[in-house]
Write a structure and sequence with these properties.
This protein is mainly α. 70% of the residues lie in helices and 1% in strands. β1 and β2 (114-115) form a beta hairpin. The structure holds geranylgeranyl diphosphate. The site of geranylgeranyl diphosphate has 18 residues, from α5, α9 and α10.
Length: 311
């Protein structure tokens, strides 16, 4: 779990907003942790449930569930109706991390400050733990969402499916793997990779929150543009942190991109320009929230958190 005390309580953005992001994140992370813990019991065969829970409850910022809850509230819904989808988003995100860390992909030993799933349970069980979490995410939305019309639940399930599959995470990961070892990756391809690998699930987190609260198509469009912008900003900052943060801060191996000579935003633009671009994207994201007025404070603060975070 990220220490909320590290968050930008006194940053210019949170002062301007008069919004205590640190307290907000602490409270929301606690709600999400409790809901995730309750969502998955250990039954027979214990081994697979233990492996699924090992990564699901390993901490992390819980950004995707928090974005979903915040958007649902901003558009007139509430935490109860969005918590099952928030949990499902974290299950999907966690499974993508488990598979990403496998020797056949990024081959990482640490994630969220702990040994990766395959290091503890073996490659075979780690693959199955990822599969188990992915399937359960969809089951969980379908069986646990309350006080939302069935058509909207169906729309959420459909948006999640699109974000995960070849039109989303899987598609982004495939192109990322194809680009391994290449030094002439064009910006267009880099953007494709990260719009799919990173931004697609962040977009689904925000848009699903709006769908659950019956937001209008115009509002959903704005939410979609907000989240695409924060999604790309998130990845630019991720690339920057790979260079500037320590393994302890990141909870995973630092400096991996440079070591693998991977094309990243800082390798194309340099650190300063990358920071500037991330800031511009966050500003563009926040401009989309103007019609939501005061209610948009949490989503604006979360957007600025993306550029000021240190893990
Ligand atoms: C989804 C079916 C399916 C398979 C997985 C491996 C893969 C396909 C996709 C890779 C997706 C991936 C790992 C993208 C990177 C996204 C990213 C920036 C992760 C870090 O997110 P944080 O910083 O992590 O929010 P925490 O630990 O805080 O939750």
């Amino acid at each position: 779990m990220v220490a909320a005390d590290n968050l930008p309580k006194n940053s210019p953005e949170s002062k301007k907003l008069e919004f205590d992001l640190s307290a907000y994140l602490k409270e929301r992370q606690k709600l999400v942790e409790t809901a995730l813990d309750k969502s998955l019991a250990i039954v027979y065969p214990q081994k697979i449930y233990e492996a699924m829970r090992y990564s699901l409850l390993a901490g992390g910022k819980r950004l995707r569930p928090i974005l979903c809850l915040a958007t649902c509230e901003m558009t007139g819904g509430n935490i109860e109706m969005s918590m099952p989808t928030a949990c499902a988003l974290e299950m999907i995100h966690t499974m993508s991390l488990i598979h990403d860390d496998l020797p056949a992909m990024d081959n990482d030993d640490y994630r969220r400050g702990k040994l990766t799933n395959h290091k503890v349970y073996g490659d075979d069980v780690a693959i199955l733990a990822g599969d188990g979490l992915l399937a359960y995410a969809f089951e969980y939305v379908a069986t646990h969402t309350q006080n939302v019309p069935p058509f909207q639940v169906l729309q959420v399930i459909s948006r999640l499916g699109r974000a995960v599959g070849a039109a989303g995470l899987v598609g982004g990961q495939v192109v990322d793997l194809e680009m391994e070892g290449k030094t002439d990756v064009p910006l267009e391809t880099l953007n494709f990779i990260h719009n799919h690998k990173t931004a697609a699930l962040l977009e689904a987190s925000v848009v699903c929150g709006g769908i659950l609260a019956s937001a209008s198509p115009e509002k959903l469009q704005r939410l979609s543009r907000y989240s695409q912008n924060i999604g790309l900003a998130f990845q630019i900052v991720d690339d920057i942190l790979d260079i500037t943060a320590t393994q302890e801060q990141l909870g995973k191996t630092a400096g991996k991109d440079q070591k693998a000579q991977k094309v990243t935003y800082p390798s194309l633009w340099g650190l300063e320009e990358s920071k500037k671009q991330a800031q511009l994207l966050v500003e563009a994201a926040c401009a989309e929230l103007e019609p939501f007025g005061e209610q948009a404070k949490p989503l604006i603060a979360l957007a600025y958190f993306i550029t000021s975070r240190n893990n």
